[in-house]
């Protein structure tokens, strides 16, 4: 690994830590820990920009990351504004008991900074060469962005429709996977990894998309959300029984 690459990793790690620390102070002032959700996408975009400015390489991966990060930040900001605290963060705060703010900072915010930095390693270590892996990665990334954008738009329309209140979205992309946005997120990062594979040491960053995929499918993404939906919507169990949990697939017959 070159001195420039090491410098990039050090600068981006420090930036991620400072960013989430400032975000934590803003969240405390607002009384809403879900502020970090908006900054999640912005953090990846900032890391991509810094990486390009330091190394002068990885323009394609950088642009792809910025587009993805800005879209996600805008979407989550629109979703969370003018609403009470996200139930996930409220439950965490209650569970931490004494000194919940300090534990929220160390266990949630700092953890997100480290994940932000680690998952974005393919972007930080992408070279300047463009070839087959670049094209293949761009296609996978585009598929992921499509699933995220369309899935989020379909869910937003469903929630804004008074006739759908209390129901479960089972049409559109949601007919084929219970989490088109999570599946799309995973595709985005596998696409960025493929772009980095065009040049060494990109292939070594394979753990980054693996970690992101695990978080979405088995970690803090899908399981926590589905548990909450099961409690709020009794019919959700029937939806789960016939619909793929992650990968898009035709629904099973009743």
From TrEMBL:
Gene3D superfamilies: 1.20.120.1630
UniProt entry keywords in alphabetical sequence: Membrane, Transmembrane, Transmembrane helix
Transmembrane segments annotated in the record for this chain: 39-70, 108-125, 131-150
UniProt key word Repeat: no
GO cellular component, one term: membrane
Source organism superkingdom: Bacteria
Pfam families, per database record: DUF1295
The protein, known as: Uncharacterized protein
Organism: Actinopolyspora mortivallis
């Amino acid at each position: 690994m070159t001195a420039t690459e090491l410098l990039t990793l050090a600068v981006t790690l420090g930036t991620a830590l400072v960013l989430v620390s400032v975000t934590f102070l803003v969240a405390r002032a607002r009384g809403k820990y879900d502020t970090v959700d908006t900054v999640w996408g912005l953090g990846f975009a900032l890391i991509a920009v810094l990486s390009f400015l330091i190394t002068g390489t990885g323009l394609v991966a950088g642009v792809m990351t910025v587009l993805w990060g800005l879209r996600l930040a805008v979407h989550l900001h629109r979703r969370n504004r003018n609403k009470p605290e996200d139930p996930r963060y409220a439950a965490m705060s209650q569970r931490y008991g004494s000194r919940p703010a300090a534990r929220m900072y160390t266990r949630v915010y700092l953890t997100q900074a480290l994940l932000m930095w680690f998952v974005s390693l393919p972007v930080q270590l992408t070279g300047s060469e463009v070839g087959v892996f670049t094209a293949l990665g761009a296609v996978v990334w585009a598929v992921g962005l499509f699933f995220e954008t369309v899935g989020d738009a379909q869910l937003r329309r469903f929630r804004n429709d008074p006739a759908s209140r209390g129901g479960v979205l089972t049409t559109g992309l949601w007919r084929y996977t219970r989490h088109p946005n999570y599946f799309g997120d995973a595709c985005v990062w596998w696409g960025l990894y493929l772009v980095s594979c065009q040049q060494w040491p990109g292939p070594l960053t394979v753990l980054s998309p693996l970690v992101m995929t695990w978080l979405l499918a088995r970690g803090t993404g899908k399981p926590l959300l589905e548990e909450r939906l099961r409690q709020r919507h009794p019919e959700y169990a029937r939806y789960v029984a016939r619909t793929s949990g992650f990968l898009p697939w035709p629904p099973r017959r009743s």
